[in-house]
Amino acid sequence: MSEPPKIILDGGAIPSxxxxxxxxATKLGFPAFYGRNMDAWIDCMSSLGDADAxxxxxxxxxxxxxxxxxTGQKALQDRHPDIWAGLVDGAAFVNWRAIESGKRAxxxxxxxx
Length: 113
Hints:
Blueprint: E1 6-10, H1 17-28, H2 38-46, E2 66-71, H3 73-79, H4 81-100, E3 107-111
Parallel strand pairs: 1-2, 2-3
C-alpha cells in the first residue's frame, strides 16, 4: 500500500502571499496560468481528486486525503495572520465544496510548533 499524499509547508519560510502561492504551485504542480490568489488556489485544490482537470500534478485516489503538514505554524500565524487565515479558510472551503458534491474531504491540515 502506498503512503497517503502529503506535503510539508514551512510556515516560517512564508514571508508573503507570493511565497505562499509559489510554495503550493511548486509542491502541487499548479499550471502556468495559475492566478496566484485564493480563488485560484481553491479551484486548484478542489481538483486534487480530478486528474482530468489538469490543475495539479498531484492526484488523489477516491477516498484519499492530502495532508498539509505546516511546520512553523506559530511563526506564520504571528507574522502573517491573514495568510494563516487564508490557508485555514481556503482548506475548509475546499472540503465543504467536496462534501456538498457528495465526495469526501480532500485536505487535512496538521500543525504543531
